[in-house]
Amino acid sequence: MNLALLFDEDFVAQDRAVLQGRRFEHIKSVLGTSIGDHLPVGRVNGQIGLGEVVALTDSEVELVVLLDQQPPPPLPLTLILAMPRPKMFRRILQTSSTLGIKDIWLVNSYKVEKSFWQTPWLSDDNLRENLTLGLEQAKDTAMPNVHIRKLFKPFVEDELPALLKGKQALVAHPGTSTPCPTHLNRPTALCIGPEGGFTPYEVGKLEEAGCQSVHLGPRILRVETAVPVLVSRLFDACL
Ligand code: SAH
């Protein structure tokens, strides 16, 4: 936790927040914070800054916060992801949030097992918690939006074309002939398939909607690896 993300319900006054639970435990036990110490904080969808510890009990910490800086810029990326296996999903969510992805569409695909959609990680609370962990890692505050689309065809035919407007649209697909572009640094929509890959039918539908198939070389990457590899190829985070 490189920053404690504060939510509206944490604030007891305009510049005071009280934290319990995970963030409190981390501040007390991992950081070993004492009264008078300062630590990085941010307000969800707002600015970042410092919080001064003004009270510390066995169960909560009170901070006086000064939020006067902007969080890092978001990536201009819409990520369209075939719903991953639950174990990977949690990590992929956190990583996507850390990388600055703000728009995530979870879609069905032939090789997505039906049971994947039953995972508790898709509940509103669990989505928020994992996205929060990703934001705290990156010292960011802008909460990503997650959209769930359990039917592939209506999504691709009815929603995707509008979603792709004004963006470079790509589908990462091993074995295709075009290498993935580098240093795009402009609004992009990127589709990433499931563990078994998109079927030829699905790739055809994505191409019909306006996506270009691109590859990352002969090595097949896990989705959790493909996401950061694609993001760092498409966007220069250190500009
Ligand atoms: N088993 C599938 C690969 C699935 S990898 C096959 O052999 O085709 C999961 C997803 O990660 C893919 O659908 C793709 O979106 C992305 N990916 C992984 N490695 C890739 C590569 N070398 N080139 C392009 N996309 C890749």
Bin the strand percentage: 25-35%
**Total number of strands:** 12
What general outline do the C-alpha atoms trace? elongated
Kindly name the structural category: alpha/beta
CATH class of the largest domain: Alpha Beta
**Helical run tally:** 6
Annotated CATH topology of the largest domain? Alpha/beta knot
Arithmetic mean pLDDT: 97
Number of domains: 2
Instruction: Enumerate the strands of the largest sheet in spatial order, edge to edge or round the barrel.
Output: 1-4-5-6-3-2
Helical fraction: 25-40%
Bound molecules: S-adenosyl-L-homocysteine
Walkthrough of the structure:
The protein has two domains: 4-69, Hypothetical PUA domain-like, domain 1 (Ribosomal Protein L25, Chain P, Beta Barrel); 77-238, Alpha/beta knot. With 239 residues, the chain is α/β, with parallel strands linked by helices. Helix content is 31%, strand content 26%. It has six helices and twelve strands. The chain binds S-adenosyl-L-homocysteine. S-adenosyl-L-homocysteine (SAH) binds at residues 172-174, 192-193, 195-198, 215-217, 219-221, 223, 226.
Chain-wise SSE layout:
Layout (H helix, E strand, L loop, with lengths): L3 E3 L4 E3 L2 E4 L1 H10 L7 E6 L4 E9 L4 E9 L7 E6 L3 H14 L3 E5 L16 H15 L6 E5 L2 H13 L3 E5 L15 E5 L7 H9 L3 E3 L8 H12 L5
Parallel strand pairs: 1-4, 7-8, 7-11, 8-9, 10-11, 10-12
Antiparallel strand pairs: 2-3, 3-6, 4-5, 5-6
Bound molecules: S-adenosyl-L-homocysteine (SAH).
